[in-house]
Amino acid sequence: MSSRLCGLLLLLGVLLVVGLDASRLTVNQELSTLFDELWLLDANRMTPGVDYNISVQGRAGYVSQGTHVAHDHASLPLFTNVNENKLRNTTTISRMMRLLDNYETSTGVSERVTAEERIETNRFLDAVLDTEVMKRAHRYLVTKGQSSSDVRVFKSQLHLIWFHLYYRQRNSGPDSCGFEHVFVGEIRSANEITGFHNWIQFYLQEKGMQLDYKGYKARQHDLPDHDDHVLNLQFSWHSVLKPVGSSFIGTSPEFEMAVFTVIFLMSTERSTTVLVNIDQCQMELVVIRHGRSLGTAYPKLLSSNSRHVRPHSL
To answer: Model confidence over 57-109: pLDDT tens digits?
Structure first.
């Protein structure tokens, strides 16, 4: 192969990579507008400094997946206080919390759903569907031809996406679902935390001494603020370490479910990543399918407090 041809192929490869990166970093304006609207409609969202306080403390170091020990850069819990009265008295949150103990922590262990647990799930979905956040998401999906206008059909759709049980490991019966993975968290082979992207579960497990926050993860010169809507975190849970995880902070369960449901239904790809601006934050939202159900979904903070729109200092 001639050197000229090699050079041409190399140039084409570079242009292709640059093009893919540029495409990946294009802000989805339509979804940003919708999600900003959902943010404003989220009446059950907690207010930082009023309903909860966090202490981000130190930047966590790099550790590889499967490592059980990491230097602790946070001697204190992440949540210094949370208004538990508001948690208990917010219908969607209180009903969500009732679901957290309905699942086996370990993948590969069959989930057995009782009649009481089915009732709890139905009551949670009813509460979510009664919020302005999910009503707006539903209307958007109807206009896009992705959902029926019939609320009962939409409820069945949400149940299939979030609560349908499937195999994550095929050595037993169905052992997982989207809700368990995202809102509760799972442990695979006793040495890897998968999922676990919900701040309320994080707080409750931290309070119960089952979780140890190790510090935040961010770019070298980026310091998280106490009012950031998304945090990238390192923590151990049941003595298993998660090198980096991410979660919305302070949001309601209906907001998170609405955002990820919209992305799930608006794409047929197995893995979908969209770049959006919500309030003052720029983030990637990642959704991965498991057939017709949700495999995982999580936010990844890129910048907060409008740092992504500020001009660089000279």
So the answer is: 999 988 877 677 788 999 999 999 999 999 999 999 999 999 999 999 998 88
- Dist. CA 197–CA 184, nearest whole Å: 8
pTM, rounded to two decimals: 0.88
pLDDT tens digit sequence for 184-231? 999 998 889 999 999 999 999 999 999 999 999 987 667 788 888 999
Q: Tokens 């292709």 identify what position?
A: 16
The whole-angstrom separation of Cα 158 and Cα 299 is: 20
CA 216, distance to chain mean position in Å, is 16
Active site residue ranges: 181, 197, 242
Tokens of 148: 């029926």
